[in-house]
Design brief:
Elements: H1 20-32, H2 35-42, H3 46-60, E1 65-67, E2 72-74, H4 76-101, E3 108-114, H5 116-123, H6 127-133, E4 137-143, E5 157-162, E6 170-177, E7 179-183, H7 185-191, E8 205-208, E9 216-221, E10 224-229, E11 234-236, H8 239-247, E12 252-256, H9 257-266, E13 270-272, E14 281-287, H10 295-307
Parallel strand pairs: 3-4, 3-5, 8-11, 8-12
Antiparallel strand pairs: 1-2, 5-14, 6-14, 7-12, 7-13, 9-10
């Protein structure tokens, strides 16, 4: 029986793709349209290019390229092989890069923003060791009560306390964010203990100011989260100042449990109305892109996970 057009007799079909160098030479020949140009770019002789392509054709039993004095023409089999070859070689190159990145040190300038309270309590103590471990990283850490625009300020990672994260952002949950109503034993002895949200109307409430004024405190009523209006003698944008005022017996505060957990444990502050406090918020690391696109982003997120580990 005669051979089909472009078929090569005595083809050896076992393991036709075991030689990646020949596949790369073939792909370059298709893209450049010239054996001599492939020879120049890959730093091999023209004879080697021709031999590699011929060996590949023999192993496949198909003519892949038709060569004349002016140009290379790609056969149907050659085009099919090229299409598959491009995808396979791209995937292999990416695999090599990914494996190499496992051992690469994160480098570059890292911009992180976090609320002042969380940054001071959880990030700052661990920051020096992180930068010692990654000497090729520099960091700009912004601790602020303001909600910074990640796009305009070119922020890499923002630590946010939120019910939910804006669409289009990548959000990685770091920890739950629990709040408490609390007051000092001295204050409760003088003014009584509030038992329900309505009782707060008769108490001096110490109000924090973040991005907005928190003069309406969220309260949980069964499965519904409601709000209660409060007022008092102090409004401040520092959780630390609110804590000190509460410890001094000035009034009732709604604050982060992280900030006062030692005070609650030691009895210098007392939690009140625990059944009414909603626990629907969380601490997130918010990014504009996935961490698998950057070693420095992956390192930053791992660092933040360590900073907020153990919070229940």
């Amino acid at each position: 029986m005669s051979n089909q057009p472009n078929q090569i007799p005595n083809a050896k079909l076992e393991n036709p793709f075991e030689d990646l160098t020949s596949l790369r030479i073939f792909s370059q020949a298709v893209e450049l349209g010239s054996f001599s140009e492939v020879s120049r770019r890959m730093d091999v002789t023209p004879a080697m290019v021709s031999k590699r392509v011929a060996n590949l054709e023999t192993r496949l039993g198909q003519k892949l390229l038709i060569r004349n004095t002016r140009r290379l023409m790609v056969t149907e089999a050659g085009q099919l092989l090229y299409d598959h070859c491009t995808r396979a070689l791209t995937a292999l190159d990416q695999a090599a890069a990914d494996i190499s990145n496992l051992h690469d040190q994160p480098t570059g300038h890292l911009r992180i923003t976090a609320p002042l309270m969380l940054g001071a309590a959880r990030i700052a103590p661990r920051l020096p060791e992180f930068l010692k471990q990654h000497p090729q990283l520099t960091m700009d850490l912004n601790l602020s009560i303001d909600k910074i625009d990640l796009y305009q300020q070119r922020i890499d990672v923002a630590v946010r306390i939120a019910d939910a994260v804006d669409p289009g952002m990548v959000a990685i949950k770091l920890a739950p964010y629990r709040r408490v109503f609390c007051a000092s034993p001295e204050y409760l002895a003088r003014f009584g203990t509030p038992r329900s949200p309505e009782d707060l109307v008769n108490h001096n409430c110490l109000i924090s100011r973040g991005v907005t004024l928190n003069s309406r405190w969220p309260v949980k009523r069964g499965d519904v989260i409601d709000e209660v209006a409060v007022q008092g003698s102090l409004i401040c944008d520092s959780g630390g100042v609110i804590r000190l005022a509460t410890l001094a017996g000035l009034g009732v505060a709604m604050t982060s449990k992280l900030l006062v957990e030692d005070d609650l444990r030691e009895g210098t502050l007392v939690q009140v109305m625990s059944e009414f406090i909603p626990q629907h918020r969380a601490i997130y690391a918010v990014l504009l892109q996935r961490t698998d696109s950057s070693r420095k982003l992956a390192a930053a997120v791992e660092f933040l996970k360590e900073c907020f580990a153990g919070i229940e």
